[in-house]
Amino acid sequence: MRILYLAPRIPYPALDREHVRPYHQIRFLSLRHDVDLVAFGGNGSEWDARRLMRRFCPRVQILPPPMRPVEPASARHVLSTQPLAVRRYQSRDLMERLDALSETRRYDVVFAYGAAMAPYGRAFPDTAKLLDLVEVSSLRWRQYGEAQGFLASAVFRREAARLRMLEVQAAKEYQRVILASDTEAEVLRGLCPGNRRIVSVKTPAPPHAPLLRRPSGVPTILFAAHMDHLPNQHAAVMFAKEVFPKVKARYSDAIFRIAGRNPGTEVRALASIDGVMVDDRVRDLRELYANCWVAVVPHRVSRGVRNELLESLTFGVPTLASSEAFVGIDALPGTDLIVADSVDDMADRIGQLFESPTDRDHLGFRARRAMLNNYSHWSIALRLEEVVEAAHRESLLPA
Which domain holds residue 100? Predict the structure, then answer.
């Protein structure tokens, strides 16, 4: 089949946790199909990205990103009926490009990645279409609103309502809507009763080799995430202010290291806490994962599959996660990782891991084994192939 893949950003570098899912989807599809890629660039690495993606796609078109900064609380956005993500990626250039492609090339399937690309599928009304939403974002925004003040809560609730309309409409228009876990798929089915077009396809485990563990001489806790993402900011602040002081009281030399790009003012201010380090210049996280004693994923928003958790487990690092972060992960709590929620429980479980190097080694080994068993690239590739073929067959049936 001939497939057109639409992405809001070029999936490069391939090992970046945000790009693992679209990158491997393109790689899997290219094994049997002719895949064209159209995506926005803008991070200064378009040349390297094009060279990499041409290994899988004979035609790669990278467009300049739309210069459309959108503030959630701005009057223009408040009066709009479109979600924030859709407005941010509105592009007349991309629409014109897709209109030209629809007239000059015949595609069997159009594969759109992310809610931002959902409206662009309408340029191909007679073609089988798939949309990978990854998660039910409307509920995530609603959860954001519940933790905000009155005015901010109203903005978040409005955004949640817009996203819900988009998700429900996509389930009607697209032959298949894909989520990253069975949990997320069940949530969307609840919003669209009777809809059989909603399926789940896991995110492949990052293709990292096992680490040669070299634990630091001091007990180190690592939280590695993109700090420009609101749930990650909240998680870092909560852990640094509530959990880490209890650990520090028992282990005076303990260190909590926050590693990730674009930390905001609130996250940077955490460096004033004794033992907390904020590092936004790390290019390769493998050294940090190899040296840390425990990785933590202490999120309080239970939407989607946390790529940070998949990454630490794949590296074979002993990991502690909250119940919210553990949602949608195919692993066994207590066997492959530690799941804890209360501040005291988190601090106690980390202290137990600090006391026992053997327990840390066993937990890390089982974590990597779970990822290799449950997030195998080939099993996910076969599942993706089944979904694509089912969507194509359905599009051929008479209305």
Answer: 2-204+376-396
